[in-house]
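Changelog note: in this version the structure field was regenerated for every chain. One regenerated record is shown below for reference.
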Amino acid sequence: MSDPTAGDLTRSTATELANAIASGETTAREVTQAHLDRIAAVDGEIHAFLHVDAEGALATADEVDRKRAAGEPLGPLAGVPVAVKDVLTTTGMPTTCGSRILEGWVPPYDATVVRRLKDAGAVILGKTNMDEFAMGSSTEHSAYGPTRNPWDTNRIPGGSGGGSAAAVAAFEAPLAIGTDTGGSIRQPAAVTGTVGVKPTYGGVSRYGLVALASSLDQAGPCARTVPDAALLHEVIGGHDPRDSTSLTDSVRGLVEAARNGSVDGLRVGVVRELGGEGYQDGVRARFAEALQLLEDVGAQVVEVSCPNFEYALAAYYLILPSEASSNLAKFDAMRFGLRVIPDGMTEAEVNAAQVMAATREAGFGDEVKRRIILGTYALSAGYYDAYYGSAQKVRTLVQRDFAAAFEQADVLVSPTAPTTAFRLGEKLDDPMAMYLNDVATIPANLAGVPGLSLPSGLAEDGLPAGLQVLAPAQEDARLYRVGAVLEQLLVQKWGGPILDRVPEMTGDPMKPVTR
């Protein structure tokens, strides 16, 4: 990696930046200004950010520099810039969830993840673009326009957290926060050549995370290296009494696992059901090469079968819309957010139901409406047991498949996504084709186990492919141990980090997507 004291600070890792700031080799202000300048130069082309808080970021950086000069203790991310997905509440900055229904809403409190970032001295650059209420696999369902992939700006950056992944891949931020309900951290990481981690469910607080599906949602780190992801994960993880699903055990040992890993004797399970037909040739080839690298350094590769993974996608797309239809009921125009009066009527003439209907019609996009309708139907009288109840039974079977597989292997691996990034607009009119992008990532959310995606190389089309590592619940450190070893092997194989090959951008604003 680059030397933070020479050249472009935006090319340095988060770990390098934290060390350089702590030692006085550079300042937090210099690092922050470099990233703000990068955002100004290229985000017109990428559209990773919905809101940039330049004034607040520089003020935080100046406070870090003051503390360092005074000899006061610094947090582990002191002066390191971070971008935050716009689904986490932030005081002083809007939280829109990529939706018109929350346009301009500034929350009165910080999410626990955001509070922990601030306590660690991180510099929050702003809020990143996302599919509306995290519903999507391409960041094309944002009410504020799509984000574009830095590898090819005519292609998607994944979703729903494409803004966070693109910001990291475009060197606009060394770290970012994403959320993963069915793959929304890992799948964007795969198609942008970055690292993304879904922690064990309950390992990172959901307090202040605007809920999509409460039993599936999980915030986690986006980074350019596995050690950087571990550093960010340790900062944001751990028990939170304000989250009833928060695990009591603190997240520890992740950075150490990423620094001193070995896979000698490790049993690596290849999931038979997560590969083969429907997977791009280049994605399969890079996956096979990565497996060989692991074998070469002492890992034992075995095949495992998880037969109920076949039904995971269908179960997920009943459970998620059902929970979403309940969670999104709060957006009713009565308490906060958008409020629309039906055409031709006045405040005095309308009732609450009419205002609510007009507001939700104007404020929600097509994908959100589609899933609310589906979820409400699945929960309705006479259909609950047939749909939602049956889906929860499949979820139990998926969890049992994981338990059986982890008796045969220490970690499970698969391609993260079946293909590399597809073109903007290519799948917007085909929801089922869009949903299939999450076929490999969804099982981890149904079971609550942790998953990590890292770049496995470039496919035949010159775009990055991703490899997914899964571990048993609360064994997140195992992910970082395996991921760090594999990352080092792949860097050697490819002659440097994959992201070194990202094309330079012009920074010119892009034309709207047409289809």
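Spot check on this record: The mean pLDDT is 95. The domain at 10-262+443-499 is CATH 3.90.1300.10 (Amidase signature (AS) enzymes).
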